[in-house]
Amino acid sequence: MSIKLSVTTLGCPEWDMETILKRVAEYGYQGIDFRGYLADVDLRQSPAFTSGRAETAARVRDSGLLVSCLASSAKMFESTAEKRQASLDEMKGYVEMCADFGAPFVRIFGGALGGVSMEAAMPIAADMLQQAAAIARDAGITIVVETHDDWVATKPLREAFDLAGNPEGVAFLWDVNHPYRSAGETPIESFKNIGRMTRYTHWKDSRLTPEGKTEHCLVGEGGLPLKEIYQLLRDSGYDGWYTLEWEKRWHRDLAEPEIAFPGYVKTMRAIAAG
Fold this sequence. Notes:
This protein is about 45% helix and about 20% strand. It is an alpha/beta fold. It has one domain (about 5-274): TIM Barrel (Alpha-Beta Barrel). The strands form two sheets. It has an eight-stranded parallel barrel, surrounded by four helices. Strands 8-9 form a two-stranded antiparallel ribbon. Helix 1 (about 15-25) packs parallel to helix 2 (about 55-65), helix 4 (about 120-140) packs across helix 5 and helix 5 (about 155-165) runs parallel beside helix 7. The mean pLDDT is about 95.
């Protein structure tokens, strides 16, 4: 069974564009998810995505890869009006880039509550979702909210979407690690809450140390029920991207991308083959 594989540039922070495109294609990926480039985490600060955007987009097209997503740092919830406006401005900036790259998705985070109660946060998050949805619809794309920060539990995340009226233009990004490890959810619990509105996925693996801490590891070498999650998505008709998020930019002790990237392709193809 074919599987659409992508990888974020979070895992190769020292690779230039030529290296990224060449190696990602050689390893067997069909897509690339831009989460920062070289020294710039925010693509709006990178010349390759501002003044050189047209050239970069042409190079991606020539490589045969698709841009599966542009990953921002914007958030669904912020505790102040000023920060909410900054997130909306960031969404707009990333959405504008999508036209050049043919990217169908912009990723945003759930956001930290910052001392605000979940009850008080709900209407704020719902309003942000409605505004994000309008930004996305105008551009013909989808903004996907990652199970992240204080929204790793899928039930309150789904409640925020329900309160917003589940507007067209926003959907879920299921990071398979976060609800399982941080919220203690089973795959079926997560799927019941967000599975049928999941439009994008992040894949990683982790295990518990003897001290009970979570540590990342190569995909297939940890304790996440990856096969079960894949089967839930497949059986629901999900035909989207399975994107490796290898957090090398944040955790420099992780294995090099030359090991992690091809290893993920091998593992996920084996899972898809049953």
